[in-house]
Design a protein that fits this description.
- The chain is mainly alpha-helical and 191 residues long.
- It has a 3-stranded parallel beta sheet with strand order 2-1-3.
- Helix 3 runs antiparallel to helix 4 and helix 4 packs across helix 5.
- The longest helix is centred in the middle third of the chain and has 55 residues.
């Protein structure tokens, strides 16, 4: 009987040890919050805004040209022959179409530029998260900013450790968000 009890105790201890060894350490971080305090993010936002302003300036210039030509057409159309009227109307329509095409292409270019600027920042953050996870022995790190995790048992928030790894003051506040007016989302690119 003592042998059976002793065997049962050893089995329970081994089972408990096995469960503990197989337990997965899980941590979480808000990647969006981390990106918001990274100086590189602010530089990327400024560069994206400058690019947007440059393209917007070109659109404004093209629209002024269209407006000037349209006003000229309105003022002088009574003096134009039918052929000149048709030519002027076609010129106005062509310019209007060029403006629309430029705006469409500009939106795509702005999105690409924004992606190109934010991808290295995201990769730097991801690298720091990976390094902290490995240093602290985490098997999984969840991104709480994505809203995908509906429930989780309490886990460790590694925000402070990642900020430290990146050399960011733990008390740093995110800069005011003067988002670049793009049609794209602010979510970081996935890898």
């Amino acid at each position: 009987m003592k042998k059976v009890i002793k065997t049962a105790i050893v089995a329970i201890v081994l089972f408990a040890t096995s469960i503990q060894v197989n337990a997965q350490k899980i941590a979480h971080i808000s990647v969006d919050s981390l990106l918001a305090v990274m100086p590189e993010s602010q530089a990327a936002k400024k560069a994206a805004q400058d690019y947007y302003n440059q393209l917007q300036g070109q659109v404004v210039s093209m629209q002024k040209e269209l407006q000037t030509k349209y006003q000229d057409y309105q003022q002088n159309q009574a003096n134009y022959t039918d052929l000149v009227k048709q030519t002027k109307q076609k010129e106005l329509n062509d310019l209007n179409q060029r403006i629309q095409d430029f705006q469409t292409q500009a939106q795509q270019d702005i999105q690409k530029k924004n992606d190109d600027l934010t991808k290295p920042v995201y990769q730097k953050a991801k690298k720091a998260i990976n390094e902290v996870a490995k240093e602290k022995g985490y098997k999984y790190v969840l991104d709480t900013s994505s809203g995908v995790v509906l429930y989780s048992d309490p886990s460790d928030d590694i925000m402070d450790a990642v900020r430290k790894k990146l050399g960011i003051d733990p008390n740093a506040k995110p800069a005011m968000d003067n988002s670049t007016p793009t049609s794209g989302s602010s979510t970081a690119p996935t890898n």
